Amino acid sequence: MISSVLPTYNRAPLSFVKGEGSWLIEADGRRFLDLGAGIAVNTLGHANPELAQTLKDQADTLWHVSNLYKIPAQEKLADMLVDLTFADTCFFTNSGTEAAELAIKMARKYWYTKGQPEKIEIITFDGCFHGRSTGAIAASGAEKMVKGFGPLMPGFVHLPFGDHEALTAAVSDKTAAIMIEPIQGEGGIRVVPDQCLKGLRDLCDEKGILLIFDEVQCGVARTGKLFAHEYAGVTPDIMMIAKGIGGGFPLGAVLATEEAASGMTAGTHGSTYGGNPLGCAIGAKVLEIVSDPAFLAEVNRKASLMRQKLEGLVAAHPDVFESVRGQGLMLGLKCKVAPGDLVAKGYEAGVLTVPAADNVVRLLPALNISDEDISDAVARIDAAAKAL
């Protein structure tokens, strides 16, 4: 008999009832150190008092009015994002998947309004993840994502990760954009080298096509810069964000240059809940905190501490681990065992991690995790590795 909740998740046998900072408390009272942060969502940990107060204050004032009207909280957050990034304009969504849908629409509409409707193809790369809508799974092209859901939306060209010759050969008169995660999350914490992001920007400029960055998982201070592409010193034309910007409240956005967004006029896109006062009030508070240079410096310091300890862990367990990868507090342990086995042993040791492709276990802690919790976390992963 089917459960009342559609059984699309292979859930762990854990039921959390309370969160405190980097800790989650199970219904039976057990405490778990959370290195998943809701898959890079809980930027400032669980039950963060500043975010909780912001939510309460806004909830006492105004929850929802719809985008039929101007929303001051939305305009405030948009102004902040424009001031802090390459973007000239923003559209707010509820999730990264919805942001991906708009990015795809925006790129195609751009060329349509330029009188080149044949330019509909978007180039993506093996291991990518852009969400689970029909458009986003077509962008991925991975069998596990698309099997049984055909016919797929046409217009995507899937290339091997890191194959420069294939990329150059794939660009054609039909190419509208290249879409890439500066760091693949679901794909196994695979960092696109700075020189490759620069090469993509140069290629797009040379061919006159749009560059789309998906920073849903790697953005919002996760890597020690506000956005991961800043390390390469390049900017996209369109960028999707979500996860961390809401600190746990459902919120996403598409950021774009004025030129890239020129096709999106009144009536071309919409969202009932996107950019509501509750979400944008919290998003503004998150952005205010994480964009502070002192906060970003602390993320980098903690990332160095955690990476140093993880390197020692890898050296101590050469039969379990191969290497540490990633940037900032978006880290991965490349494993010689099944990632799911390490995650399961982690449950027994009271630590939560997230499996990914390429035999990687992801470590995505709250960005304000304490030094003590970092040491405790690595000790618990060490215990999980010993148990294997």
TrEMBL record:
GO terms for cellular component: cytoplasm. Pfam families: Aminotran_3 (PF00202). Binds 1 pyridoxal phosphate per subunit. Its main location: cytoplasm. Keywords: Amino-acid biosynthesis, Aminotransferase, Arginine biosynthesis, Cytoplasm, Pyridoxal phosphate, Transferase. Belongs to the class-III pyridoxal-phosphate-dependent aminotransferase family. ArgD subfamily. This is Acetylornithine aminotransferase.
